[in-house]
Amino acid sequence: MNALHLAQNRYSTKKYQSKPIPSEKVEALKEILRLSPSSINIQPWKFTFIQDEAVKSRLAEASSFNESKIKQADLLVVFSVAEDLDAFQKVVDKELPEALRDWYNQGRASMPEAELKVWFSRQLYISLGMGLAGCAALGLDATPMEGISSDDFAQILNLTEYKPLIAMSVGFAAEDDYNRLEVVPKSRRALEEVVDSI
Ligand SMILES: Cc1cc2nc3c(=O)[nH]c(=O)nc-3n(C[C@H](O)[C@H](O)[C@H](O)COP(=O)(O)O)c2cc1C
């Protein structure tokens, strides 16, 4: 399938089959997320892949209306953003080339912490887009999710320096998923409303 077909055919799955994902596809998805682009290549993220049923179940119970999807799907990916700026500074100092490090350090010195964290969060959404497109390309169904409890997720996953922001369940859609495209056709605003060509 080409990129347009993938965009036309992916959708947010609401019901999954209990079918495992081949491990090479899980590994490919990890690499796709690692390769996500970000502003000044800052990469302020941690991607946690959860297939352990007991942990996945606890996370599902901290996800209100997303509970059943998380329990059914073979994989849950949690996208967490750098929260402890001093801890993340060590990553920057160790891993970013000098020019980008200087850029970041100037930004950190001049920007309120809250603004810096909003900028970090924006980068996570780029990786979510990469993840959704990557799943489609790998022949996997997925659901992006903001409906999670960040505090509960952090506690269950024992994350202290990163804060869970979004999640994505991944697997194979159930035959009777009520959100399948045959049941609920893709719905978007008209092209001419959202795209200007000059
Ligand atoms: C950032 C983001 C957060 C979302 N959160 C949820 C969610 O918590 N639960 C859910 O079932 N769908 C969630 N969705 C799915 C959207 O409702 C869905 O993408 C939108 O209605 C378009 O439908 P489609 O993805 O099937 O094309 C989310 C989508 C995005 C991009």
UniProtKB/TrEMBL annotation:
<keyword id="KW-0520">NAD</keyword>
<keyword id="KW-0285">Flavoprotein</keyword>
<dbReference type="InterPro" id="IPR000415">
    <property type="entry name" value="Nitroreductase-like"/>
</dbReference>
<protein>
    <submittedName>
        <fullName>Nitroreductase family protein</fullName>
    </submittedName>
</protein>
<dbReference type="InterPro" id="IPR033878">
    <property type="entry name" value="NfsB-like"/>
</dbReference>
<dbReference type="InterPro" id="IPR050627">
    <property type="entry name" value="Nitroreductase/BluB"/>
</dbReference>
<keyword id="KW-0560">Oxidoreductase</keyword>
<feature type="domain" description="Nitroreductase">
    <location>
        <begin position="8"/>
        <end position="171"/>
    </location>
</feature>
<keyword id="KW-0288">FMN</keyword>
<keyword id="KW-0521">NADP</keyword>
<comment type="similarity">
    <text>Belongs to the nitroreductase family.</text>
</comment>
<dbReference type="InterPro" id="IPR029479">
    <property type="entry name" value="Nitroreductase"/>
</dbReference>
<dbReference type="Pfam" id="PF00881">
    <property type="entry name" value="Nitroreductase"/>
</dbReference>
